[in-house]
Design goal:
3 helices; Heat Shock Protein 90; single chain; 89 residues; alpha+beta; two-stranded antiparallel sheet
Length: 89
């Protein structure tokens, strides 16, 4: 999630299309090719993930990518995770 500019529905549709860039090209503050979101979503989809994009103008954008457990790890999770250690010098 971010607290950036956010997008309305039309801008979000543009951002989700390949090479889609939101904002006027002469006044845009952010650079890019417009491939980030579409590429990430396609890559996640090839791994069976479900992607959700929620954006609100002037509030920010949240992208959730949920992978099925079989794609996250082929090993079983350990029964007991070691406690983190803190060393102060």
């Amino acid at each position: 999630a971010d607290t950036g500019i956010g997008m309305d529905a039309e801008e979000l549709e543009t951002a989700l299309s390949r090479f889609g860039q939101v904002g006027h090209t002469m006044t845009r503050d952010h650079q890019g090719t417009g491939l980030g979101l579409p590429l990430a979503i396609e890559l996640a989809k090839t791994h069976g993930a479900i992607t959700e994009v929620v954006s609100a103008k002037s509030k920010g954008t949240r992208v959730n990518v949920d992978f099925p457990p079989t794609r996250v790890s082929s090993r079983q999770a350990p029964q007991h995770l070691p406690q983190p250690r803190l060393t102060v010098v």
